[in-house]
Amino acid sequence: MSQIFPLPTPSPHAPAPTATIKRPIEIAIFSHDQNHAYVPNDSSLKYYHPPRLPSNLSAGFETFRHHEDQTDQHLNSLLETLMRKEKETGVKTRADFITWRGMMTKIMTALYDPYSAFSMKATKFQDTIFIEEDFRAKQQDRAAQEKQRRPPGALPLDLMSFWGYKFETLSVVSRPVAQMSREEIESRESEQVSNYAQFCSIVSTGFGSSSVVIGGEVDAILTSRPAVPSATEPISYVELKTMDSALLDDPSKHRKTELKLLNFWAQSFLLGIPKIIVGLRDPRGMLMRVVEFNTRNIPGEVQRMNRTWDGNWCIKFTSDFLAFLKSSIGEGVWQISKQKGERAIRLERLAEEGTGGIISPEFLEWRTQ
């Protein structure tokens, strides 16, 4: 039997409800190397350096090294990192939820995103709820997208997706700029684009009464990582995005722009990333200019425009929904799902016992010693 959590309808004219929020603090990091192998350090962290303008974001598409999981990786690298940390410190990670940033972003934006649809799986172990993406549903969605017919003259979706990876390649270097030659910096334009290597940050945060540990990829950093993260100042990470320049230049498109900023804001807010750098392109993929957003200022900017969404409502909804999950999820495997256009999220038990592979055998063994 399923349970339904209805999505409230926020009023843009009434004061938004509030909920307490704990600022994200980094507790661990890990990388995937050029072969996408797990590495327990920050070796894949890149440094931001502005790209040359204009630049062709389609250049190098034919040689793109595109990593896409062919098997369900669950929460493996996240749990591997937490397990290593626990063994080193002797302190277990205590949280109501452990999950990837992508799952929290979908929850946090569901209230306002009219295209929102998702399927996740969850299990409870030692008083923590572990949430992952429904891999089979993701594969089905991917296959359906590939079968969709594009309008005449429209560019291929995989090429347009490549533009984001190309922008990242043009905007990062492997070492602090002061340690690099001009030739190395300029060689970014001919560098093979690959998404195999990744740097990931794991943070501890909270919504209302729920404590949450979130892992997610970080695109780059402005300065060196501190040896010990500050409790008051965010690390100078940056999120890199691309967007059609018309979304900023054409006032008739500003509502669509604000919805795009909703996802930009939520993704960065959840990991405590203070700055978002957006490459503005034309419809054919030419990078024309770069703009910067301070993550904390985006909700205020939206409120001064069309009030398409309210960050306080997003936080309160997330707090209430996590409280609902805590009170509802028991033993076994559960599905958390939402259909496009529905104003509700459905929770259903799939199995009475077990963890459905969501938690790795190594983590289970470690925690039950």
TrEMBL record:
Enzyme class: hydrolase
Domain RAI1-like positions: 22-363
The enzyme's E.C. designation: 3.6.1.-
Protein location: Nucleus
Keyword set, alphabetical order: Hydrolase, Metal-binding, Nuclease, Nucleotide-binding, Nucleus, RNA-binding
GO terms of biological process kind: NAD-cap decapping; nuclear-transcribed mRNA catabolic process
Cofactor field: a divalent metal cation
UniProt GO cellular component terms: cytosol; nucleus
One family name in Pfam for this protein: RAI1
Catalyses which reaction(s): a 5'-end triphospho-ribonucleoside in mRNA + H2O = a 5'-end phospho-ribonucleoside in mRNA + diphosphate + H(+); a 5'-end NAD(+)-phospho-ribonucleoside in mRNA + H2O = a 5'-end phospho-ribonucleoside in mRNA + NAD(+) + H(+); a 5'-end (N(7)-methyl 5'-triphosphoguanosine)-ribonucleoside-ribonucleotide in mRNA + H2O = a (N(7)-methyl 5'-triphosphoguanosine)-nucleoside + a 5'-end phospho-ribonucleoside in mRNA + H(+)
Molecular function via GO: metal ion binding; mRNA 5'-diphosphatase activity; nuclease activity; nucleotide binding; RNA binding
Role played: Decapping enzyme for NAD-capped RNAs: specifically hydrolyzes the nicotinamide adenine dinucleotide (NAD) cap from a subset of RNAs by removing the entire NAD moiety from the 5'-end of an NAD-capped RNA. The NAD-cap is present at the 5'-end of some RNAs and snoRNAs. In contrast to the canonical 5'-end N7 methylguanosine (m7G) cap, the NAD cap promotes mRNA decay. Also acts as a non-canonical decapping enzyme that removes the entire cap structure of m7G capped or incompletely capped RNAs.
PANTHER family associated with the record: DECAPPING AND EXORIBONUCLEASE PROTEIN (PTHR12395:SF9), DOM-3 RELATED (PTHR12395)
Family, as annotated: Belongs to the DXO/Dom3Z family.
Protein name: Decapping nuclease
Organism, scientific name: Delitschia confertaspora ATCC 74209
Lineage: Eukaryota, Fungi, Dikarya, Ascomycota, Pezizomycotina
